[in-house]
Amino acid sequence: MERIGNVFYRVSDMDAAVPFYRDALGLSLKFQDGDRWAAFDVGGATLALEGGGSGGPGGATVSLRTSELDALVRGLRARGAQVSDVETGAHERRATVKDPAGNTLVLYEPLQRG
Question: How far is CA 6 from CA 39, 40, 55, 76, 106, in A?
Fold first, then answer.
């Protein structure tokens, strides 16, 4: 085993999903094959979308680490995304957002340890 190649969600509407990940989340689109596949770079890892499926919430959850959680939440809300309130846990601050297919993404910022 070398590494994880990618993590992907199945989506029913690629035309709605790609702008969400590219524009609302600000991920860099690496490759798109029409409505069949789209791959985004997330800090050297690949988050991909497989089209043509039934879509809807999948069996996995992707967590995206950021150093600017509050700004990210504000930007997503400004674009009309439904984002939870930020909660502080033992190790990070986090919020969740759903993509157009209903998949949940966790957005988190590690707590600064002093």
Answer: 9, 9, 18, 24, 17
